[in-house]
């Protein structure tokens, strides 16, 4: 199966999936994610902010790896993780997400009460307030 046809099928399957691994992909948007989706590994992807919002919108996510996000508008978009959709999130890796802001970190901390493990290594924009 060609890479493009596999990625094109991802949005259709998201409604019933329990986990997705989409490493090193560009501009992926998963839509219709249900509460059955509990694991996403999107390390080193160039996700659009809308794609990240769609990923967490199902409300069932427990593990999210977005190591090395390269999209520059994520300063505000990462706050979507803490906007009430990811209340079941337990593990979050933002490793090497160099544009993560303190405001996003605070929003995630407030909106993810079950968060147990959080990787912020090499997140250079996170300061003391974050």
Verbal overview:
The protein is an alpha/beta fold. The chain has one domain: Ribonuclease Inhibitor (Leucine-rich repeat, LRR (right-handed beta-alpha superhelix), Alpha-Beta Horseshoe). Helices cover 25% and strands 12% of the residues. The chain is built from 4 helices and 5 strands. The protein has a 5-stranded parallel β-sheet, with no helix packed on it. It starts with a helix and ends in an 11-residue tail after the last strand. The relative contact order is 0.14. The N terminus is likely disordered.
Question: Gist?
Answer:
The protein contains 4 helices and 5 strands. The protein has helices at 3-13, 49-56, 74-77, 102-111; strands at 19-21, 39-41, 63-65, 91-93, 117-119.
Instruction: Work out the helicity level.
Output: 25-40%
Q: Rg to the nearest angstrom?
A: 14 Å
Order of helices and strands: HEEHEHEHE
CATH-defined superfamily: Ribonuclease Inhibitor
What is the count of structural domains? 1
Give the strand tally.
Answer: 5
- CATH classification, class level: Alpha Beta
Biggest sheet statistics: 5 strands, parallel
Strand fraction equals 5-15%
Oligomer: single chain
Compute the average pLDDT.
74
Total helical segments: 4
- Uncertain parts: 1-13
Q: What is the CATH architecture term?
A: Alpha-Beta Horseshoe
CATH topology: Leucine-rich repeat, LRR (right-handed beta-alpha superhelix)
Strand order in the sheet with the most strands: 1-2-3-4-5
The CA-CA distance between the termini, in Å, is 43 Å
Protein name: F-box/LRR-repeat protein 12-like
């Amino acid at each position: 199966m060609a890479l493009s046809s596999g990625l094109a099928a991802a949005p259709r399957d998201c409604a019933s999936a329990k986990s997705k691994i989409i490493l090193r992909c560009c501009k992926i948007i998963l839509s219709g994610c249900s509460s059955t989706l509990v694991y996403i590994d999107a390390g080193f992807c160039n996700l659009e902010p809308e794609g990240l919002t769609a990923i967490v919108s199902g409300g069932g996510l427990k593990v999210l790896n977005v190591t090395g996000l390269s999209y520059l508008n994520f300063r505000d978009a990462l706050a979507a993780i803490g906007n009430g959709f990811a209340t079941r999130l337990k593990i979050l890796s933002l490793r090497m997400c160099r544009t993560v802001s303190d405001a996003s970190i605070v929003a995630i901390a407030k909106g993810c009460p079950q968060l147990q493990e959080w990787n912020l290594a090499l997140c250079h924009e996170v300061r003391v307030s974050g």
